[in-house]
Amino acid sequence: MKKYYLPLIIGLTCLSLSGCSFFQKEEVKADESWSVERIYSEAKAALDIADYSKAITYYEQLEARFPFGEYAQQALLESAYAHYKSDDPETAIATIDRFMRVYPLNPNIDYAIYLRGLVNFHRDIGLLEKYIPRDESQRDPGAAEDALRDFNTLIQRFPTSRYAEDAAQRIVYLRNRLAQHEVNVANYYMRRGSYLAALNRGKYVIENYDRTPAMPEALVVMAKAYKVLGMLELSEDSLRVLRINYPGHPGIAEVAQTEVQ
Fold first, then answer.
1. What are 68-72's contacts with CB under 8 Å, separation 24+?
2. What is the rounded distance in angstroms from the CA atom of residue 80 to the CA atom of residue 182?
3. How far is CA 250 from the centre of its chain?
4. 105, 106, 109, 112: CA torsion to nearest 10
5. 38: part of which helix (H) or strand (E)?
6. What is the spatial distance between Cα 119 and Cα 73, in angstroms, rounded to a whole number?
7. Which of 3, 129, 169, 203 ranks highest by number of CB atoms within 10 Å?
8. Other C-beta atoms within 10 Å of 130: how many?
C-alpha cells in the first residue's frame, strides 16, 4: 500500500521546498516605459484581488520612480493596507506613521489613523487564534490600548469622518475588553494575597472604564480588598455603591463572607 502514498509524500515535500519550479514566484517588475498611472493601475488591480505581495512590489516601484505627487502618496497609504492584510503589522504601522509624518495635510489622513487602529485592533491575534477563539480579555492588552488610542484620536480630530461610526463601536468593545482584563488581573492578585495590587486594579477600572460591564466586578474587588486590609469604611463605601447600582449582584454576598485579616 506504500506506493499509493508516494505521490502524496512527493507533493507535500514539493510544497515545503522553495526549489519546486511550479511554485516559483513570477518576477514583478514595472516596465521602464510605464507611466505612473500604469504602475498604480497594476498595483491597485493586484490589491483588489488580494495579491498583496504583488501590490506591495508595484507600490514600492512607483514610489521609487515617482516619489512626488498624489500617486506616490496614495501608493504609500495603500501599501500600508496591503502589509496589514499580509499579516505584517509592524511594517503596516511603520508605513502609516511615515505617511502621516510626510503628508500630514493629505485629505485621507483620517483613513490613515483609522487603518492604524485596525492594525492594532488585530495585532495580537496569532494564527491559531484566528481559528480557535479564546477569551479576548485574557490577551495582552498592549495592542488593544494602542488601538483604543488610535480610534479616540480619529474621533477627536475627525468627528464627521466616514470611519468615525465604526471607530466608536470599536472603542466600546475595546473599553469593555480592557476593563475585564484589569478585573481578571485583580482577581488573580486577590487569589495570590496581593490585596493592595488587586485594589489598585479595581480602582483603575472605576476611574478609567466607567459604564463597562466590568464595573460591578471591580467594585467587588475593591470592597473585598479594603475589608481584608482592615479599611472597613472604604470597604463599606464600595459595597454601598455596588448595592445601589447593581442590587442583587452575587458579589455582595462574597464581600459579606470576606474576613478581615
1. 69/36, 71/36, 71/37, 71/40
2. 32
3. 33
4. -130
5. helix 36-48
6. 19
7. 203
8. 10
- Angular region, 193: left φ>0, alpha ψ -120 to 50, beta rest: left
- Pick from 67, 66, 71: nearest CA to 40: 71
How many CB atoms are located within 10 Å of the residue 17 CB? 9
List the grid coordinates of 209.
Answer: 472604564
Give the pTM: 0.82
* C-alpha–C-alpha distance, residues 8 and 2, integer Å: 11
| Secondary structure letter of residue 194 according to DSSP | -
- Contact status, residue 137 vs residue 181, Cβ threshold 8 Å: yes
The amino acid occupying position 111 is Y
pLDDT tens, position by position, 150-183: 999 999 999 999 999 999 999 999 999 999 999 9
Instruction: Give the Cα-Cα-Cα angle 169, 91, 47 (nearest 5 degrees).
Output: 75
Distant-in-sequence, close-in-space partners of 77: CB < 8 Å, separation ≥ 6: 96, 99, 106, 108, 111, 112, 115
User: Can you read off the three cell numbers belonging to residue 242?
Assistant: 455596588
Q: In 10 A of CB 140, how many CB atoms?
A: 10
68 vs 134 pLDDT, higher one: 68
What is the spatial distance between Cα 79 and Cα 71, in angstroms, rounded to a whole number?
12
Residue 170 grid cell: 470599536
